Amino acid sequence: MSDTLSPLALPFPAMPPIRGVTAHTVRAGYKDWGRTDLTYVTLAQGTTVAGVFTRNVCCSSEVELGRLNVAQGHARALVVNAGNSNAFTGYRGREAVEAIMDQVAAHLGCPREQVFVSSTGVIGVPLPKDKARAGIDAALTAPEASWEQAARTIGTTDTFPKGATATAIVGGTTVSLSAIIKGSGMIAPDMATMLGYVFTDADVSPAFLQAALSDANTRTFSCITVDSDTSTSDTVLAFATGMAGNPRIEHAGSPGADAFAAALLAVCRELAQLVVRDGEGAQKFITVAVGGAVSDDSARRIALSIANSPLVKTAIAGEDANWGRVVMAVGKAGEPADRDRLSIGFGGTWAAREGQPLADYDEAPVAAHLKGREITIEADIGLGEGRATVWTCDLTHGYIAINADYRS
Amino acid sequence: MSDTLSPLALPFPAMPPIRGVTAHTVRAGYKDWGRTDLTYVTLAQGTTVAGVFTRNVCCSSEVELGRLNVAQGHARALVVNAGNSNAFTGYRGREAVEAIMDQVAAHLGCPREQVFVSSTGVIGVPLPKDKARAGIDAALTAPEASWEQAARTIGTTDTFPKGATATAIVGGTTVSLSAIIKGSGMIAPDMATMLGYVFTDADVSPAFLQAALSDANTRTFSCITVDSDTSTSDTVLAFATGMAGNPRIEHAGSPGADAFAAALLAVCRELAQLVVRDGEGAQKFITVAVGGAVSDDSARRIALSIANSPLVKTAIAGEDANWGRVVMAVGKAGEPADRDRLSIGFGGTWAAREGQPLADYDEAPVAAHLKGREITIEADIGLGEGRATVWTCDLTHGYIAINADYRS
């Protein structure tokens, strides 16, 4: 954890334990620091798993193996290494991950593909196998850790621990979800990584868990951006132990499937927004709401074009209602738009309507809105019914300071 | 022109006059400033024209009309307004452009579609028709202006005037090209605009002039980026007066066509690089050279992904050989790549080869290279023969200061 708390930080929530899930945190010493950096989570027999991973083709071995392992649908353990991302380390990096999988599988007596491994931190340095082995040995006998301890231990340059929780009623049974995430702080020579884990005691088939997670991902983790860069290690995994005893959710038509999916979506949205709140140098949390596009997908691409525009992000940092930059970002998105139907607003006040500045535009409420911490940019494309919302932060001197003001 | 000269600025070159081209600069007073802001260029009868325009769908009326006018192939005049981009101004903005076209066409006795208009500056304010009319009246009797005066007059937040020149031998006759450009400074509440004009005395058919300009555009203006944002007004026009008396270049097989295209390409490359040298906050000029991609197009997209990455650009600002960020940018480009064949270098020294850090990597020459003003990033994808080079600048506190440290 960094010393300087993000001004957008939220307190860690009270999160219930999840039956069948036990976390342990130890210090493997991946870096020369006095903190825990290895998280080991055991999962009850029968736990199902789903995952979504970075689309970066230069992904780490952890991502390659995780993607393969998810396919068989079950999980018994999760290991998260902080301080070394093990990315771009060739066959030695892959051997390090396989050694961890073998060690944990031997201890638990499970197939090794049921052991999931993530790593985050410096790149280009193979994960030291001896430190990982000793760390896991220690974790096997370590006391149980709290959610907050686990959230802190998976973090690297994060400025606050991040968690979210929800419940749902499935076939008359209340199931719980507790989740942690790290990201997206990034500091030389580290590489940004978003690692998120959702644990639930619900009984859910691997197929439905994957479908629900993929859908939630499209509407949450795929709708945030800090600086448009995509990590080589991004991973979100969902684990369902089944120990709540609900009638199993096999598919979208099963009783409680909708309620469970809604709870999962809520948890993922909260996790995604927490990552933005810890964006490098962030001073303002920005919601970009696009309506009137030709489709929801088109709306999302336009919203991301706005959210990724350095000129829009610096305008918000400067508390400047520069709607012309939003027009520019809409126009460059490569999506259907019509200059003369386009409307732009801030915090619920239109600045421009249908291709022209508003004649009676009152900038006072917009100026007041832009002085706050939570900013909304609205764009109505005026062509259809497509809608999307994405979240980002402003682009400030803090971002430059974190990423440029050093030599490695 | 801004007061603070870019550290990457180059002196204005000695550029020959072009027969059939006469420039005049006057003060229309689009802003409250004590400088010339209207450029009026007359072109000899029979001048052919070609153009490339922004792909931003929220383009200005100047771009819409220019695109239409280029289709008929001939030009008699160019008017460039500085201080007001006339973008996002609805029908009133379009009327202002049409009024200028009518006024000049009446004076020259030519069809109005042979009058080309560009505007750059504040957006959302219709170009004042009275100021434009009075300015053009003054320009009609103003003395001839030098290339450097014209280059200064089309500028807005540029920190230095930009020009380029070349010659070619066409069928035994020497033809000349002289060209000016403005961009890409941008300051609130202005919008970035790149406006470039190439003038030649060569006799060239409209079709070949367009083909040669489009090809040059793909390899020059489409290969530069400052911050990934795309203006609503970007325009490059080429005018050929034919007064050199060379045998007309009708098509790619005509004598001298290759030589002319090469000269046009050289001029466009120089203009494009000058825009990057005036990038907001730029301290370093970065050349990104990608080889080994599956095609030239794929290489260009990978190179732009590297050049647009805020993390790569801040690393160069920090003089940090952070090749991991280049790996990330290659991987997120959405193009074929293989982590284990990828090599990354700086200034001719490999830092990583075939997916792994180089065992005997000597950082000393790389560190020395990164302290300079002219930086090269090399990426070998290791899959094919596709090559591309793009140019960008670093991302510094200066960029944030220009774009965020103000209220409009």
Describe this structure in words.
The structure is a homodimer of 408-residue chains. Chain A has 408 residues and is α+β, with helices and mostly antiparallel strands. Chain A folds into 2 domains: 21-277, L-amino peptidase D-ALA esterase/amidase (4-Layer Sandwich), CATH 3.60.70.12; 285-404, ArgJ beta chain, C-terminal domain (Ubiquitin-like (UB roll), Roll). Helices cover 32% and strands 25% of the residues of chain A. Chain A contains 11 helices and 16 strands. Chain A has helices at 61-70, 90-108, 129-140, 147-154, 206-219, 257-277, 296-308, 310-317, 323-331, 363-370, 397-404, and strands at residues 21-26, 38-43, 48-53, 77-84, 115-122, 162-170, 173-182, 195-200, 224-225, 235-240, 285-293, 343-346, 349-353, 356-357, 374-380, 386-393. The first copy, chain A, has a 7-stranded mixed sheet with strand order 9-16-11-15-12-13-14, sandwiched between helices. A 5-stranded mixed sheet of chain A has the order 3-10-8-7-6, sandwiched between helices. Chain A is globular. At the A-B interface, helix 8, helix 9, strand 14 and helix 11 of A face helix 8, helix 9, strand 14 and helix 11 of B.
